[in-house]
Design a protein that fits this description.
Blueprint (H helix, E strand, L loop, with lengths): L8 E4 L2 E5 H4 L4 H16 E4 L1 H7 L5 E5 L4 E8 L2 E5 L4 E4 L2 H12 L4 E10 L9 H9 L4 H5 L1 E11 L8 H12 L5 E3 L2 E4 L1 H14 L5 E5 L3 E5 L3 E12 L8 E9 L4 E8 L5 H12 L4 E2 L12 E2 L5 E6 L1 E3 L9 E8 L4 E9 L2 E3 L2 E5 L7 H4 L2 H4 L21 E12 L2 E11 L12 E8 L7 E8 L2 H15 L5 E2 L1
Parallel strand pairs: 3-13, 9-10, 17-22
Antiparallel strand pairs: 1-2, 2-7, 4-11, 4-12, 5-6, 5-8, 6-7, 8-9, 12-13, 14-15, 14-18, 14-19, 15-16, 16-21, 19-24, 20-23, 21-22, 25-26, 25-29, 26-27, 27-28
Length: about 475
């Protein structure tokens, strides 16, 4: 069976790309890719070096240099090779695709699904960066760009019906047999050893060679990644107070980046790294900066954050920054706008940003300000690729206005009181700019002074214009009968 139901779009030479929804022959392949990504995320514990030294179990590990690339699955079927990421992007025709097909064919393999890191390998740089993968794989400038794309195999999910993924020693041995002589597809560089050996290799790969980190796999102890912590300066946007015996103490800070002098993009929250004395002193300091906001978030105790006047900057350390979900979708965060005149924040819209993993408060930075230069997105994009689009530009933050398509009002008099029902249908004009919005909304307002609750509402949404107009007509028949008169 062919892997593709229709050809991909040619980019340059033989290299082509496409979307799984349009070109993938078997949708189960995308489901399997996403499942493997989620499985890997759930299984992997992330440590920095000091934590690993204290908490890493004593075991025999397969220790690999962590490749800074894009999680991708490679599929092979009777001489045909494609790669697929959790976001549904298909790729084929690069040098590593061709080499994989040749090596697997020579080995007599009929079908395979491999897990690996798609990355860019250049002789003139010390380490690969995922940013390069995104740029080159999406829009290569030359054949030389395409030839730099490489695939580092780290697991075998299927090999002619055999799943080796939970027996990692066998999987990496088989990958070495199949791809050990490859130049653009090859197994991840792997050594065996105990915890001491792992920490020694961390010092070599990360501290000396500048690698992103190391990955440890043990069939008994589990999967671990060890990475250096990142230091980021972020704007303090709000705070929440502890509850019960922690009342009067800071619970956590709401933190974000400055997109410009009037817009902040919320990154997340930080609740670790504070001493009890810090929590008392910081809560007192933050309370003096309270301002109004029409947007609210809540902490893990379901307590709402109080927003503060922009100005404070906190240095945060974190273990990792991720910009996509396990399905490959962007991680959207709220953009808020500061009004100096109203002394208040206003929620604008959600845009792609990131999540920070294991954040810890370090200190307040009195030498930093709420500004793009001091607390901007560059700090994050230096670590991870942040998805961008035309809709992510500052001049496009305010969403298009909705268009009223239909309006209808009916009344009915009962016991001397007038009841009102109003139908309103509008087109949001926002569905292409923000995933939070449907294309069409139908709303019913039902007012009856004779009821205990006089005012009721009902709402229905759709992305189909034909369907929403049919619903409008159905609602008129349903709600405008037995004495109701349309005005």
């Amino acid at each position: 069976m062919a892997l593709l139901s229709k050809p991909l779009t040619q980019k340059l030479g033989d290299y082509s790309t496409g979307n799984a929804a349009e070109s993938l022959a078997d949708p189960a392949m995308l489901q399997a890719t996403r499942m493997r990504r989620r499985q890997l995320s759930r299984m992997t514990k992330a440590y920095d070096r000091p934590t690993a030294k204290a908490r890493l179990p004593e075991a025999e590990y397969a220790i690999s240099r962590k490749v800074d690339g894009e999680f991708t699955c490679l599929f092979y079927q009777d001489g045909e090779v494609i790669t697929l990421n959790p976001g549904g992007t298909l790729r084929a025709g690069a040098a590593f695709h061709k080499e994989a097909a040749q090596l697997l064919t020579n080995a007599g393999v009929k079908s395979a699904m491999l897990g690996g890191e798609l990355h860019v390998k250049r002789a003139d740089v010390q380490r690969e960066r995922v940013h390069d993968v995104v740029r080159i794989a999406r829009a290569p400038d030359s054949q030389a760009d395409i030839d730099c794309l490489c695939f580092a195999v780290f697991n075998i999910y299927d090999l002619d019906g055999d799943d080796l993924s939970m027996n990692y020693a066998d999987a990496i041995e088989k990958a070495q047999q199949l791809f050990g002589d490859g130049s653009t597809i090859f197994p991840v560089e792997t050594h065996t050893g105990d915890r001491t050996k792992a920490l020694e290799l961390f010092d070599v790969y990360v501290n000396e060679q500048g690698a992103e980190g190391i990955v440890l796999r043990s069939d008994n102890a589990g999967v671990f990644k060890i990475k250096p912590r990142h230091s980021i300066d972020l704007a303090v946007l709000g705070y929440s107070e502890g509850v019960d015996d922690r009342a009067g103490m800071l619970h956590s800070m709401l933190i974000g980046i400055a997109r410009d002098n009037h817009h902040a993009h919320i990154v997340g929250r930080v609740g670790g790294g504070f001493s009890d004395d810090d929590r008392v002193a910081l809560l007192e300091q933050l309370r003096k900066l309270d301002v109004e906001s029409d947007y609210a978030e809540v902490n893990s105790d379901r307590v709402a954050y109080r927003m503060i006047k922009p100005g404070l900057v906190a240095e945060i350390s974190c273990l990792d920054v991720i910009s996509t979900t396990s399905h490959g979708s962007p991680i959207d965060r709220m953009v808020v706008e500061w009004s100096q005149d109203n002394n208040a924040w206003k929620g604008i819209r959600r845009l792609p940003l990131c999540s920070i993993i294991s954040p810890q408060f370090v200190q307040l930075r009195e030498d930093k300000t709420f500004s793009e230069a001091d607390t901007g997105a560059d700090q994050l994009s230096d670590i991870v690729n942040i998805p961008t689009s035309e809709h992510g530009k500052i001049d496009a933050l305010n969403l298009p206005e909705s268009t009223i398509l239909k309006r209808s009002v009916a009344t009915k008099t009962l016991k001397g009181n007038t009841m009102v029902r109003k139908l309103l249908l509008w087109q949001t004009n926002k569905q292409t700019a923000a995933r939070d919005y449907p294309a069409y909304v139908l709303h019913l307002t039902d007012f009856s002074p004779n009821r205990k609750e006089p005012l009721n509402h009902e709402i229905c949404v759709s992305d189909s214009e034909e369907q929403i107009h049919e619903l409008f007509a159905d609602w008129k028949k349903q709600y405008y009968k037995r004495g109701w008169k349309e005005q």
